[in-house]
Amino acid sequence: MLEGTNVNLRVMEKEDLPLYTEWINKPEFFGEYNGLMQLSKSEAEKMLENPYEQKYFVIEKKDGRKIGLIFHFYVLHPAGRQLEIGYVLVPSERGKGYCTEAVRIMMDYLFLSRDTMRVQACTDTCNLASQKVLEKAGFKKEGVSRKDFFTRGKWTDDCLYGILREEWKEPKILTRTA
Ligand SMILES: CC(C)(COP(=O)(O)OP(=O)(O)OC[C@H]1O[C@@H](n2cnc3c(N)ncnc32)[C@H](O)[C@@H]1OP(=O)(O)O)[C@@H](O)C(=O)NCCC(=O)NCCS
Questions:
Q1: Pairing state of beta strands 176-177 and 118-124?
Q2: At what angle do helices 128-136 and 98-113 cross, to 10 degrees?
Q3: Which pairing describes strands 118-124 and 83-89: parallel, antiparallel, or unpaired?
Q4: pLDDT band for position 120 (50/70/90)?
Q5: Ligand 1 centre distance from Cα of residue 44 (Å)
Q6: Which has the higher per-residue pLDDT, 36 or 132?
Q7: Distance 96 CA to ligand 1 centre (A)
Q8: How far is it, in rounded angstroms, from Cα 172 to Cα 102?
Q9: Model confidence at 37, in pLDDT bands (50, 70, 90)?
Q10: How much is the average pLDDT of 19-44?
Q11: Atom 21 of ligand 1, residue of closest alpha carbon
Q12: d(CA 119, CA 104)
């Protein structure tokens, strides 16, 4: 468990699978800029075991309510040691600063626990909320990948954001691990 001020990040367990499957099958969960998915529980389970060491955390409020997901994985191949993150919140909990805090906690955790020089994130060029989250968490916009994702019937452009270890500098919000 990674503890912050308003949210904690808890490693996803088998018991979270039903909720995870329910979330990812709902188009509104991923918002308007992410692809649609329909997965059975066993397919969702397989998604959690993959070669890029993708690791999921449930974002929980302090009272234990589960409000979203944040995950990290190695870009292209684990040998590259380059990390990328992704995140989603349930619609009713957006706009309250929770995702920015979750990203900050994740950055503290990754830079404290991994010998990585940079962490990156990609987001649709139209996804202003996601770009704001990254900028507030100290990421810098590095460029745009054109026609990068096929999302909801069309090819979309993605912004690449990155944060370097020297820009992160020191832990900011991770208060405790349990
Ligand atoms: C993107 C997402 C994770 C943001 O989570 P969140 O908890 O709402 O983010 P925060 O509240 O920490 O910050 C959002 C910021 O974006 C701003 N924002 C929200 N919608 C916006 C919009 N349409 N245009 C510009 N800014 C916007 C908010 O005002 C806030 O900035 P502020 O703190 O300066 O007021 C959430 O909207 C979500 O789950 N979306 C669907 C999934 C998704 O797009 N995931 C990212 C994939 S890369």
A1: unpaired
A2: 50
A3: parallel
A4: very high
A5: 25
A6: 132
A7: 9
A8: 12
A9: confident
A10: 91
A11: 129
A12: 12
Of 6, 26, 89, 136, which is best to mutate to test ligand 1, by the most ligand atoms within 8 angstroms of its C-beta?
89
Pairing of strands 66-74, 118-124: unpaired
Q: Which residue, by CA, sits nearest to atom 12 of ligand 1?
A: 97
Residue 94 C-alpha to ligand 1 middle, in angstroms? 7
> What is the CB neighbour count within 10 angstroms for residue 100?
18
CA-closest residue to ligand 1 atom 7: 99
Nearest-CA residue for ligand 1 atom 31 is 132
Closest ligand 1 atom to 121 CA? 48
* Ligand 1 midpoint to CA 39 (Å): 26
Residue pLDDT, tens place only, 68-118:
999 999 987 767 778 999 999 999 999 999 999 999 999 999 999 998 999
Output the pLDDT for position 52: 67
Task: Take residue 62 and report the two structure tokens written for it.
Answer: 């302090």
What is the rounded distance in angstroms from the CA atom of residue 164 to the CA atom of residue 15?
Answer: 35
* Distance from Cα 79 to the centre of ligand 1, integer Å: 32
Q: How confident is the model at residue 14 (pLDDT cuts 50, 70, 90)?
A: confident
- Give the sign of the dihedral formed by CA 52, CA 40, CA 70, CA 159: positive
